[in-house]
Amino acid sequence: MLERPAISNHTSRNGSPLRPPYSGTGSFKPNSASLGDDVHPIINEGRVAVITGAASGIGHAAALELAKLKLKIAIADIDERKLEQVGKQVAAIVGEANVLVVPTDVSKIDQVVSFKDKVYEQWGEVAVLMNNAGIGLKGGSSWEGLNAWKTIFDVNLFGILNVQQTFVPSMIHQENQGMIINTGSKQGITNPPGNPAYNASKAAVKSLTESLAHELRQRPDPNVTAHLFIPGWTHTGMTSTSSGSAKPPGAWSAEETVLYMLDKVRAGDFYILVPDNETRKELDELRIMWSAGDIVERRPALSRWERGYKALFEEYVRDGMAGVQGRD
Ligand SMILES: NC(=O)c1ccc[n+]([C@@H]2O[C@H](COP(=O)([O-])OP(=O)(O)OC[C@H]3O[C@@H](n4cnc5c(N)ncnc54)[C@H](O)[C@@H]3O)[C@@H](O)[C@H]2O)c1
After folding, report:
1. What tens digit of pLDDT does each residue of 101-148 get?
2. Exposed e or buried b per residue across 298-309, where buried means at least 16 C-beta atoms within 10 angstroms of its C-beta
3. Looking at the record, which segments are called Disordered (predicted)?
4. What per-residue confidence (pLDDT) applies to 140?
């Protein structure tokens, strides 16, 4: 049963900072080499990693990190020029024979099928499928901008679904174990005002990936696992104001986010909720609990941003974080 956010006794309307004082999570710095110290059946030398949206940001960092762990790397992206450059960087780590560069628009099923055929023709298997391509395009409000909504859903939801439906039927018939990592977003869980189309697309990815994980577990021989990767604020092409801009102190680098993700998938986690230098894990958890609490407490939708509930939410967070900070 869902634990109720402890708000019933709260009557104080005293304001408190939305983000309680916090000295930072500290960056996550496992050495990527150490991730490969013990033999993992999937993230392992000689196995195959497929990464979409690999020309930039998180996908780019994932291609480099998995190459350092000596996997063969197949990368796809709609941006052909940048993808070629990433292909060269990956080849410098694993050698040209171990890189496959396939310009692909994930929203186009025929291109995804052709990408998959190339990977299986070349290497005959997939161990890690990182279903990561996404766009942060600003959609309209909830009652406007239908075209932008469709564009966002075509990439962020149907792109993920195209890749999943094309690769998973082959992966489940492989002898070796595999994993599929779909990239969601905290915005798909807590639904902050601002970009409803992006939020809705990522909420759908969460739902889709939960169903996928369950369905895979029901198979008599569950050799493929699914994971929902929920990055924190990561300095990438999507979040930068201009190309080459410096990383804001609150954000993690793409490398940090990827190393954290790899650490958690290796541990078998399904929900990989990644912190950043501004939002620690416990604060994310409180926000998620508050959001679920809107339903059970019969509060208005998105009460966290509603004038009448703002102070209560802030107090809920302050109380929740007090114990945590005591442990620091
Ligand atoms: N950066 C963050 O703070 C953050 C937070 C939460 C979730 N995410 C998610 O992480 C994923 C990676 O984003 P990023 O931050 O690295 O952004 P990014 O813009 O740096 O990288 C996204 C890549 O996807 C590619 N892409 C876009 N449309 C495509 C298509 N139709 N087919 C193939 N490739 C396509 C882009 O060309 C780009 O190279 C996205 O799904 C994004 O929604 C990012």
Report:
1. 999 999 999 999 999 999 999 999 999 999 999 999 988 899 999 999
2. ebeeebbeeeeb
3. 1-30
4. 85
Nearest residue (by CA) to ligand 1, atom 2, is: 234
198 is catalytic: yes
Residue nearest to atom 34 of ligand 1 (CA): 77
pLDDT digits (tens, 9 = 90+) for 248-262: 999 999 999 999 999
Per-residue pLDDT of 45-70, as tens digits, reads 999 999 999 999 999 999 999 999 99
Each domain of the chain, given as residue ranges in start order, spans 40-134+142-240+249-276
Q: pTM (2 decimals)?
A: 0.91
Indicate the top mutation candidate among 52, 56, 243 to test ligand 1's pocket, ranked by most ligand atoms within 8 A of CB.
Answer: 56
In this structure, the residues whose C-beta lies within 6 A of any atom of ligand 1 are: 52-53, 55-59, 77-79, 104-107, 132-135, 155, 159, 183, 185, 231, 233-234, 236-239
Residue 253: strand, helix, or coil: strand
SS3 (DSSP) at 124: coil
Query: Chain-centre distance of CA 166, in angstroms?
Result: 20
Cβ 69 vs Cβ 36: under 8 Å = yes
